[in-house]
Specification:
Helix content: 10-25%
Largest sheet: 4 strands, antiparallel
Strand content: 25-35%
Number of helices: 2
Radius of gyration: 12 Å
Distance between the termini: 15 Å
Length: 79
């Protein structure tokens, strides 16, 4: 069975503290808004989380962002 071409990133933006780690690691996936909080690019609302489908070639960098988030509000899951 072939590996999926994408995975899903989930971000609980309301709990962001604005440390910028995710935006520094994957700036094409996370941006900082005018209030200094991280925003998941091209995301849709899923309750308290926002989610976006991301190409697998970015998975390693996203997992670094997940690990570096000091408030543990980013998840990377298979689609």
């Amino acid at each position: 069975m072939p590996k999926p071409a994408h995975f899903v990133v989930r971000h609980k933006a309301a709990e962001c503290i604005g440390c910028c780690a995710c935006a520094e690691i994957v700036p094409h996936i996370f941006e900082m808004d005018d209030d200094g909080m991280a925003v998941l690019v091209n995301a849709v609302d899923e309750g308290v989380m926002r989610s976006a489908e991301i190409p697998n070639l970015d998975r390693s960098d996203v997992e670094t962002a997940v690990d570096d988030c000091p408030v543990d509000i980013i998840r990377a899951v298979n689609s």
